[in-house]
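Risk register update: the risk that structure generation would not scale has been downgraded. Supporting records follow, first protein first.
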Amino acid sequence: MPPEHSHAAPPPATPGAGALVEALDVSFRLLRWAMAALAAVYLLTGLFIVPQHERALVLVFGRITGEGDARIRGPGIHWTLPRPFAEIVRIETERVQTVSAGELPAEGAELPPEAGFADPAWDTFFLTGDANLLSARWSLRYTIADPEAFLFRFRDAVGLLEAELNQAVVQTAARFDVEAALRTDVERFRAEVGDRLRERIRELGLGVRIERIELVGVRPPAAVAHAFEAVVQAEQERSRQMSEARAYAARRGQEAFGEAARTVAEAEADRDRWVASAAADAAVFRAVLEKERENPGVLRETLRQDAIRRAFAGVGHLWFIRPGEAGRRELRVLLSPERRALMLPGDR
């Protein structure tokens, strides 16, 4: 019998078997390195770059990763698990985007008489505080301030923003009369629509920042457009006439001021001249008075003679009649030198 614990001898090794084992070992080592390289490449696909004008959110199994401010990836290089474990959601936050609301009917378009408020065309109008209808076209320019709220808090944030803009226009228009909303106070109308919309966005937490709200155009219904145009023309005519009246009043006022200044200047000149003349006469009278006091009667006679001489200076013939002797009167004629030159020698 063979021994109880006998072992069979291994078959003798052949050169072909050793080469096969060595080849398999090398293949497995290469496969491991290839798997490691593929795993590294796969992990490197989780690297992503966020440009300056963008923000990114990383969803791992459908949930946003990170806490606080880290939930929103800013500009730079970031890493996350590759797909399909993670998803990168990008959104532009610095680009100004636009939402439009309202419509302007075509020029001359009118609603048919049988059309009621259920007609879709009535959706282009809003009601003012004095029960008038206006149509308007609005443009809202905004940027995204909170990407997470804008992307995930609402199903259609852009549609909601447009609806809130329409609602703000309707509510604000109810506080304005048609003239203010259409012409006289358009800027305040636009500003109040913006204030109301900003307040509503804060309440909803929509995650957008309003840059500007523009009223592209506003128009009354075509059926009453001619009445509004007549009012505008009347106001323009009134403004023109008032401007002309103000210009005429200003011109006449300047002329009146000029004439008044000239009259006052002439009056002041006359006053100064008369005052100076009166002062000169007073000085002469005072001097004469002093002379009269020094020589009573002499100056008076001198002045009388001087006055007579000035009075007779322009007279050609002087006739003097004075009493003569024994009640007779004597007539004497004073002739000018020219008259005496014409007399005969015997008559002189």
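Supporting record for the second protein:
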Amino acid sequence: MECPHIPTISYNEFGNRIHKKMIGQRIPITGSIEVTARCNLSCAHCYINLPAGERSALERELTSDEFKNILDQLVDEGCLWLLLTGGEPFIRSDFLEIYTYTIKKGLLITLFTNGTMITPQIADYLAEWPPINLEITLYGCTQDTYEQITGTPGSFKRCIEGIELLIERNIPLRLKTMVMEPNKHELSGMKDYAAKLGVEFRYDSVLNMRLDGGKKPSTFRIPAQEVVELDLADEKRLDEWRKFCDKFCGVIPEDDFIYQCGAGNHTCNIDSFGHLSVCGTSRNPSYDLRQGSFQEGWHEFMPKVLGQRWSKETPCMKCGLISLCGQCPGWAELEHGDPEQQVEYLCEIAHMRADAFGLEN
């Protein structure tokens, strides 16, 4: 008996087909889980990390069984793509147990790590059970710059060794960086390093504040003008911005909901303590999965969050450039403790981008 032919399609086409079917439906097709808030590095700009030995964080973290239970519920509600991140995931002694469980559930996994804890044994395991993508953050292409940011002697060497172990095993790897004052002079060097390895490289040049209300990351931000200059200097990035502008710029929100993005409709974030929120930036309010189910959090709690409306006049309400700045309730909450407050740094970047792209302000 002959089997019917099953056509082969690319991963991108597969993803596009799935997302088209999601239009008009509230299904958490994509999620992110922070398996820990702890990290073995001490990056000065980090918005989340807690020291590796932080006892209160360790004691409050979800157990592996609790994570598995939440993963079961996520899959039942339709999740397919899942990001596992931290903190530094590999700081958990049971991380590979959690990771393997997600793979065997059929989830398509992206893994964020700083790469410094990758050993030959871990690399071998990831080669046997590969993620769809694995992303490592570079903080510089020299030891001095990298460790000035991480505050951890020896971390640069361990990161490079981790990258090499993954490359040797053909694990799907991407490199990225946060551009800030201490490392902006090494951006081209990091790009060259990634190109030499033959891996994709991306960067973000806009730092947000800490989840605990700390403002220290602002001292590492590059000026708004330099953010835009980086946009203009990279041909691929500039082309992407132009396409984005053609589609979204000048579009003024027709309703008065403060959430104008897709967060909470097809995506969600779960932190290491079991708190469900619309995304990794906007965490207030959140739903405690230890006290209830993901189904209840997604279908009852989340719509209430997304249903919040502007309670006061703000320039962001009717701004046609809001898509150029990234302003959102989460950013505003972290910056000012008010989800409706204008973030001046983002606003400045948006207007400079508009001028550079020849758009009306």
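The first strand starts at residue 30 and ends at 34. On this basis the risk owner (M.S.) recommends closing the item.
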